Amino acid sequence: MKSIFVKFSASFMLVGLIPLFALSFFSVQIFSGYVERYTTSNLQQMVLYMSYNLNSAFQQYNDISKLMYNVRYEGVSEDINRNQTFNVNELEQINATPIDSFLKTIVFSDNYITGAYFVRASDGRIYYQERENRGLRSELLPVQEWKDKMSTQPAKVAIFPKHQDSYFTGSKREVFTLVRNLIDTSGVLTREPKVVGTLFLDIDTAVFRQFLNELYLGEQDEVVLLDGEDHIYFSNQGNRTKDEILAGSKDNEMLVLREDIPFINGQLIAMIHRAGLFEQLFSARATVYTAILICSVALIVMGAWFSRRLAAPIRKLIQQMAVVESGRLDSMLPVNSNDEIGRLTQGFNRMVERLRVHIDEAYVAQIKQKQTELNALKSQIRPHYLYNTLEVIRMNAVDKEAEEVADMIHSLSNQLKYVIDYGEERVSLRRELEHLHDYFYIISVRYDNRYVLRCDIAPDVDMDWPILKLCLQPIVENAVQHGLRQQKKGTVGVTVEKRDKDLAITIYDDGAGMDRGTLARINETLYEPSAPSKSVGLKNVHERIRSMYGENYGLSVSSQKDIGTSVLLCFPIPG
Questions:
Q1: N or C: which end of the chain has fewer CB within 10 A?
Q2: In Å, how far are 61, 92, 208, 565 from 204, measured between CA atoms?
Q3: What is the pairing mode between strands 113-120 and 554-560?
Q4: Which residues does the UniProt record annotate as the domain Histidine kinase (predicted)?
Q5: Residue 291: which of 20, 70, 110 has the closest Cα?
Q6: What is the distance between the alpha carbons of residues 483 and 564, in angstroms, rounded to a whole number?
Q7: Cα 466 vs. chain centroid, distance in angstroms?
Q8: What is the rounded end-to-end Cα distance, in angstroms, of the chain?
Q9: Exposed, middle or buried by CB within 10 Å (0-12, 13-18, 19+), for 343?
Q10: 96/73 Cα distance (integer angstroms)
Q11: 552, 486 in Cβ contact below 8 A?
Q12: 159-214 per-position pLDDT tens digit
């Protein structure tokens, strides 16, 4: 990237791309996070509401089972009401109501109760009522198994999870069963409750489906109702095993929400597929990224077009200067604009025209005599016009209020004057430091002011002491390129002090540093002329110092990994 226009265009593109990427990325992330949190929170609230409704449904069926205790009839003696043993065994009644009538009332009290049956404890007789007049195959009814499971807590209601009511003829309906014992509370209370009979209510699992519409589930989403022993009461994905459900709840692609169902000491688990839940969000995010990509491509194309358009006339001028250098003075460049480039082209054309007139008027002998002067003039043409061109560009930047660009061009112009000024091997310490500050200003702008140059000069140092020209800038450049570029911020320090009869200049950085092997190879190449080296700048400065001041002077390098590097340069103080 030797062309200033390429650098300018690259900076232009970076200044546009970095804020675009940063702003777009953070905006999308913030928006996506908000939408995800909002959606998840809403879904959690819906699952909580559904769990509340389910718990209320269980409580409702529990209240229905308690009708065995709560129903009272006027005109019936209190003793009959209380003596459930006599009512059930002798009168075949529950609370002065025939058992069959009581069961029919229970069945038709709720649309999801498919059957109700009462087993009398004294003789095991089964009374039953159901909606569809199906025949009961009592030998298939697992009454004893359910009663055995209730034996530890006979006074409490029990719920048995989903199963098929195949004990009714021709039925394979999935139901869960709520069971409550009818306990005789009359007379003296005993340690073991006196169970008169047991009421069984078959409830269709379709009762749970009425709550699913609230969640708007997708095809891959699943809602599962489990009790405290992980028995499955319901799953919208059909017959699923406990292991399959637990495996799905651990899938990272699923959003798992849980809410407790206190009545059955269980949980309502909603497993929502993330891709389906946030499909619209992902689509919007992809659209934003596509727009960012299109804008980036447009910005790069515009930057490349701008660079080519700005650099084309300069390239033509450079090519024409090469033609003039070869001795051809018969061609002119067309002037296509009135800006700085156009005025530079006009000046070049006038210069070529004057050279041609001068050659035409002079004698061949005079041309030969002035050949040396002409060669000197040619060597000064480029710097002269380059200085003028840079100054014109800088003044135009100032006029456009581009102060930073103007300062960069000014610093670059100072550096060029300092470097192209032939015939000087030694300069004052002051001029070398001024050149270093001009160089580092451009470096700091190029890297967004991430790096800082700090100079510490001892009070007993004379700023007019001579040192080798262009000896500090290569060292500072190495510090930035090899020490600081791998980190976001850094400092390059320059200390100048007097040591006995020598002037010691130390250049250090707080960058990556070097390991011992790398440091040893660099120090070897400084003192072994035949040793291959990639550190051309260090070796060049070291050999120039030793060539001018003797082998007692030069530079030395010290470094520690992850701490930094320092380079010491020594010069003699003039007596």
A1: C
A2: 12, 28, 9, 80
A3: unpaired
A4: 381-575
A5: 20
A6: 7
A7: 54
A8: 45
A9: middle
A10: 7
A11: no
A12: 888 888 888 887 888 888 999 988 887 766 667 788 888 999 999 888 888 777 66
